[in-house]
Amino acid sequence: MPDAPLHPISRRHLDELGGELGILQHAVGSVPDPAHGYCVDDVARALEVDLLHARGLGWASVSGSAWRSLHFLQEAFDAETGRFQNFRAMNGEWIGGPGSNDSFGRAMLALGAAMEAAPDARLVDAALALFGRALPAAGKVTSPRAQASVVLACDAVARSATITGSSEEPEAAVGAASALVLRRLATGLHARFLESARPGWPWPEESLTYENALLPRALIVAGHRLGAGTMLAIGLQVLDWLIDVQTTPKGRFSPVGNGWWPRGGERSQFDQQPIEATSLLLAAEAAHNATRNPRYLEVMERAYAWFLGANDLGRRIAHPARGACCDGLTSTGLNKNEGAESTLMWLIAAEHIRRVRGSTRQATRGLTAGQPAPQRLAASSQVAAAPLVPG
User: Which of 291-317 are b and which e, b meaning 16 or more Cβ less than 10 Å from the residue's Cβ?
Assistant: First the structure.
């Protein structure tokens, strides 16, 4: 099956969803719905998309949006608790009490991404300051998805040029604290899998629910960074299981639907959500980075193709020309609302595929020109010998 086509970057719907303070959560059809206001989850993801789009469009095209999102996160931070509020009305009032663990993790992940990738030193410094203030509370989160997001955020910080090799006290302090948090949370997440795995169900929860591939992605990234062979191996095995149970006999990606899948029970086929496709794509990218196994590139392509019609109903979920995405695939067709999460998931998936295809082509040209094949990372040899959870 040929790869699904790439499309030029379009921020049309992203701009339509943009309010005065940030990206609006929901839409009715393609029309933004101000009734639900804003949330940290989507504003954080919008910042990640701006960082990705800066590579293709230039920083000047996205800097206003990126700064708006960062200011939103700054204003969401509650110094008293060290956490982020989540929901915000159109008039700027914070509503709904303390933010969720998931929104906390997503805010940290966006700040880590900004520290790693933003070409604006002022924005990097602002992200660093906010990340440092939130890190103590982030290191105490117990929700597995929040833990996974914080682990990935700390890994991004470790790659940041601002942190790496810095002799400045603030940067060095944040870098050292971030490294400790990464190790502690990754070890705790690893323990969940070790303690909960059952034959045929290597999952630390009684149901597969949402954004499932985020968990093995964090184990893969942390195991690779820490040189922890067993952690890496378990992350890969669990990801392989998620891939297998969400791939049809014809090779299509078919994510667990929004009715979930309880252990020993009936799996929900619909409503399939864009976040599942993107979370699997990103986890497969992490697995490929750690192992260089081309199988994971194929998984990324299947997840990307899901948006463009290679799914259970053969329906195109994303609308690349507008940079928009429907909210899900139901048993009768599309959920035609084009909210922020779905649209951001499409844009993230498209940019990661664009990047990995470009890297693959570059590597192929290098081999054709006589360069030696890149050696497989040392961690992959550890994976082969590491004990795995029950299959």
Answer: bbbeebbbbbbbbbbbbbebbbeeeeb
End-to-end Cα distance, the chain: 30
- Helix, strand, coil shares of the chain, percent, nearest 5, are 55, 15, 30
Contacts of 213 (CB under 8 A, 6+ apart): 239, 242, 276, 279, 280, 282, 283, 284
Residue 177 has pLDDT above 80, yes or no: yes
Whichever domain contains 277, its CATH number is 1.50.10.20
Same domain, 153 and 235: no
**One domain, residues 215 and 322:** yes
User: Both 181 and 311 in a single domain?
Assistant: no
Q: Cα separations (Å) of 195 from 198, 206, 389? A: 9, 13, 9
Question: What is the tens place of the pLDDT at every residue in 92-139?
Answer: 999 988 889 999 999 999 999 999 999 999 999 999 999 999 999 999
Considering the domain architecture, whether residues 173 and 232 belong to the same structural domain is answered as no
Helix (H) or strand (E) holding 207: strand 207-208
pTM (predicted TM-score): 0.91
Q: Specify whether the CB–CB gap between 255 and 209 falls below 8 A.
A: no
Residues 337, 2, 359, 55, Cα dihedral to 10°: -30
Helix (H) or strand (E) holding 89: none
Amino acid of residue 19: G
Is the CB of residue 104 less than 8 Å from the CB of residue 148? no
183 & 225 share domain: no
278 and 304 in one domain? yes
Render pLDDT for 9-25 as a digit per residue (tens, 0 to 9). 999 999 999 999 999 99
**Domain range spanning residue 387?**
209-258+268-365+382-391
Cβ burial of 40 (10 Å; 0-12, 13-18, 19+) is buried
Helix or strand or coil: residue 280? helix
User: Domain tally for the chain?
Assistant: 2
Helix axis angle for 101-117 and 144-159, nearest 10°, is 10
20 belongs to a structural domain? no
Q: Are residues 187 and 130 in the same domain?
A: yes
Question: Which amino acid is it at 308?
Answer: L
Q: pLDDT-derived band of residue 53, with 50, 70 and 90 as boundaries? A: very high
What is the distance between the alpha carbons of residues 148 and 72, in angstroms, rounded to a whole number? 23
